[in-house]
Specification:
Blueprint (H helix, E strand, L loop, with lengths): L2 H17 L11 E4 L10 H9 L19 E7 L6 E7 L8 E6 L4 E4 L7 E9 L4 E9 L6 E2 L9 E2 L16 E4 L17 H9 L5 E4 L6 E2 L7 E4 L11 H14 L7 E4 L6 H13 L3 H9 L20 H12 L6 H12 L3 H11 L2
Parallel strand pairs: 10-14, 11-13, 11-14
Antiparallel strand pairs: 1-2, 2-5, 3-4, 3-6, 6-7, 8-9, 9-10, 12-13
């Protein structure tokens, strides 16, 4: 068969499937879909008020009694299809839907809440209505805001968010979906009465949707296998938070940790201590500072633990309460190093403890757009 004849056959096949409503979006008069008109906030309103307040506020005054902080984009639709059997919802960040997520829904379901959206991103949405003979489709789109941390809603996981999405002082952007932070997934290190235990659905989501390739525990002990799945490695480092990051007892662990973060195969990764608050907060502060994240965003990411279950043992405020002096000590220690910016000071701290220049360059290359 020559190429010209093959091309004609392929064109005919595509036209046939399009006519059947199985390729492209046809029959728009039969289906309507509505997406949010305004940019979608990724946090609940009570948390958005903290973001609106700006720098220097006491996060403890905005405490939210509950763990569900993430806000969804609500998609609604309807159809006039005879013999309707169900709907297929597809949403994607690429216009050609090559990265689409597909959700099958019954005929009596005409809405869906999409959680865990990327910050500052346009999403494309289409809904197919099918009756066993033909499919009908309608399309729309929406955008998300660029504010605050990307809070993650995962069944059985706590205090979880993405460390990406921030614009740096150098005008770059920290990649989303690469470094996640949160509490231990299986109650590891539990000595405060918290019952952390990720569910089967949560594990499946982290493995298949978040594509987690490693777990990093800051609790010490031996390396092993992740709670998420036995095929995922767990790397263990015994660190302590705040000013302890600069003490000889923990320097080796911080050096080894950042050496691990310099390896591409580590990503996407999930970093945790017990509650994802102090040790995790210190590590993520140093990592984000190394990437050039603005101080306001660094503080916001740290203080967001206040909106989690962990807040019962104290708001992670940088201006008042038990943890403010600890945060100040860490920041003061970092500022003792040379540099014209916090990014340079963090780099010099890491060089001082033995992280190599090549490893620092690798971390930035992996995590910055």
């Amino acid at each position: 068969m020559n190429f010209k004849k093959a091309g004609l056959i392929l064109t005919a096949v595509c036209l046939m499937f399009t006519a059947m409503g199985l390729s492209g979006c046809t029959g728009k008069e039969k289906v309507k879909v509505v997406c949010p008109e305004n940019a979608v906030e990724l946090c609940v309103n009570s948390v958005v008020s903290y973001l609106d307040a700006g720098a220097g506020v006491d996060v403890g005054e905005y405490f939210v009694d509950g763990e569900k902080l993430g806000a969804p984009a609500e998609i609604v639709w309807g159809s006039a299809v005879d013999g309707l059997l169900g709907y297929t919802l597809e949403y994607a960040t690429k216009k050609d839907y090559s990265d689409k997520v597909t959700v099958e829904l019954p005929a009596d379901r005409e809405w869906y809440d999409i959680y865990n959206l990327y910050k500052g991103t346009r999403y494309y949405v289409r809904v197919w209505a099918h009756n066993g003979i033909k499919k009908y489709c309608a399309e729309s789109s929406f955008v998300t805001t660029d504010r605050g941390p990307r809070v993650m809603t995962i069944d059985g996981a706590y205090n979880t968010r993405d460390c990406g999405g921030y614009t740096t002082t150098q005008g770059k952007r920290v990649k989303q979906g690469m470094v996640y932070r949160g509490a231990a997934l299986n109650g590891e290190g539990n000595d405060d009465g918290f019952e952390f235990s990720i569910t089967r659905d949560g594990k499946k989501y982290m493995r298949e949707q978040m594509n987690i390739r490693s777990e990093i525990s800051l609790l010490g002990g031996n390396d092993g296998h992740s709670t998420i799945h036995s095929s995922i490695p767990m790397y263990s480092f015994r660190v302590s938070g705040y000013g302890d990051a600069f003490k000889p007892d923990y320097v080796a662990a911080y050096r080894a940790l950042f050496s691990r973060l310099a390896k591409p195969e580590t990503y996407p990764t999930y970093i945790h201590c017990q509650g994802g608050a102090d040790r995790t907060g210190t590590v993520c502060f140093l990592l984000e500072a190394l990437l050039g994240v603005e101080m306001r965003d660094l503080i916001c990411d740290y203080e967001f633990t206040t909106f989690s279950t962990l807040a019962v043992i104290g708001a992670r405020s940088t201006v008042s309460g038990l943890y403010a002096p600890m945060f100040k000590e860490m920041n003061d220690k970092l500022n003792e190093f040379e540099g014209n910016s916090l990014m340079q000071k963090t780099e010099n701290y890491l060089l001082h403890i033995g992280v190599t220049a090549d490893e620092i360059a690798s971390v930035r290359n992996i995590l910055l757009d």
